[in-house]
Design brief:
The protein is of the alpha+beta class and about 350 residues long. The chain has two domains: about 150 residues, Up-down Bundle (Butyryl-CoA Dehydrogenase, subunit A, domain 3); about 130 residues, Nuclear Transport Factor 2, Chain: A (Roll), CATH 3.10.450. It is built from 14 helices and seven strands. Helix 1 packs antiparallel against helix 2, helix 3 packs parallel to helix 5 and helix 8 crosses helix 10. The chain is globular. The two termini are about 40 Å apart. The relative contact order is 0.13.
Length: about 350
Amino acid sequence: MSEFSFPAQDTAAMGAEDVDLGKARDGDNGAFTRLVTPLRRELHAHCYRMLGSTHDADDALQDALLRAWRGLARFEGRSSLRTWLYTVVTRTCLDVAETRGKRALPVDLGPSSDHAVLDGNAPLADVAWLGPYPDANLSGSQAGPDARYEQREAVELAFVAALQHLPGNQRAALLLFDVLGFSAAEIATTMNTSTTSVNSALARARKIVAEKVPSRTQQQTLRNVDDGRLRKIVAEYAAALENGDADALVALLTDDVTWSMPPLPHWYHGIEAVTDFAVQVPLTRCPSWRHVPTSANGQPAVAFYLGNDATGPHLAWSITVLTLRGEHISDLTSFIGPDHFTPFGLPAALH
């Protein structure tokens, strides 16, 4: 994973911030809202990286901002308000992570299956599953191209999944230093520890992440794929499922493709196993598919809706995130469940 950091708050806004800060300390909730609104998206993305769940990120950010509002009198201005808010948010996420545990994908639970599993593949409710992240939650057009690139790189599925293998303190140190650009001394203050401990945590975290994240990020891959070609890949993949066309699907996949479907525990690796699953289940046993293109975790994605027939309503089924290698799909991660659709602003059904 390349090292990247997001820019600090525009200094031109600092005068207005100082005025609002004084008002907020006097109990003006509107002033506090004006202070935190420009930072909400980046703070929310930080919560997602820490916790691996959009819903947990929602709860953690709400709790953290409440803590910040109640503790604003303790903010002495020794650091920027942004830095102080990241301290509050990070500590809140560490509390949540300690109580809820790390998020997982099916590949973390056991070996792949070499053929379609039709029985004994019920959803596992006792596993905290990693979830997808809507790109719309990232900072918008006010960020320059390089910043938008870095924001997407920092929420890529492989990176967020790798973070879940780190203890909370290592996860926080890595994100604050490598992603957000805080110094080791600032991180030590945030985490109530020493710079030596921070540097040690960083070294261990980088080693684990390097073992689990591909050397080439999805943003690097996608920059070399023409936008028109990318839209074509997504459309052809969705059409293959909708038309029950196994040959068209296989033509889009790498030989070592993987397909996983949290919260289902079984997953498939290799073109033969993936093809067998596709033919046995989504291409033949699912009566009718419809889709809406979207994007998640800085990657192309497809929202799929399943219906009993082509003419009836189709209900929200899964958000499938595509990972590319070159111009072929190397990983399919289908996050099953209608609860994933709301954060993406997608309807619960297509009629």
